[in-house]
Amino acid sequence: MNPPDVHLLDLPNEILLIILRKLNNIDVLYSLLDINNGQLDILAQEKTFTNVLNFVHTDNISLIDRFCIYILPRIHHNIKYFILEPVFMGRILLAAVYPNLTELKLFNFERQIASKYFTGQNRIIDGTCVQDDILVYMPQLHSFTFYISTYIDSGDLRHNIARQHINQTLINIGPQNATTIVNRLSRSVVECSIFSLPFAFAYLGSLGNTFPNIVFNYITYIVV
């Protein structure tokens, strides 16, 4: 006597959740949400799959389109933590209102990309810029992990590139710790880097000859 066929959807929800939790939550949402199956639709909206969304190393345009058009507007109230790269940051953050978003982590925020998100020219990205151009739009955010560098002409007297002055502007971004490194790359070019503490990235470029009194737990590549 042959045993009856058992399909995935015949399993209890508790067993389905155990199986789905072993998968990437981005894949779960992309594959199961809004596919005209009520049982899977409810399971995919569990907080396990919707609280933290990591889009780093995602280059599937169809996936991003589906999230921005259909998925994020449905689960926006559950999202507490985004991990993003700048290439899709604008689309994702503008896809919905995120009333419970409290953490935002950005990776690979390179010089050319940074100029798209911060207004003004050969301008220093300091704490005031971070507050006015990013954080003001996310009032519930309590943790922002960042590392941003600006390269400027040191002969431009419009810029105040004193480390003490830039550190003072970092007070604007709230209670979290942050600091700056100012490094002269040549007679005419100065690099100003601002970053959150503790430093969460594996790369630190152009440190210069002044090593700050900071513990870098995750760095695997550094330029001195």
Automatic annotation (TrEMBL):
F-box domain residues are: 5-52
* InterPro entries associated with the record: F-box_dom
Q: Which domain of life is it from?
A: Eukaryota
The protein here is known as F-box domain-containing protein
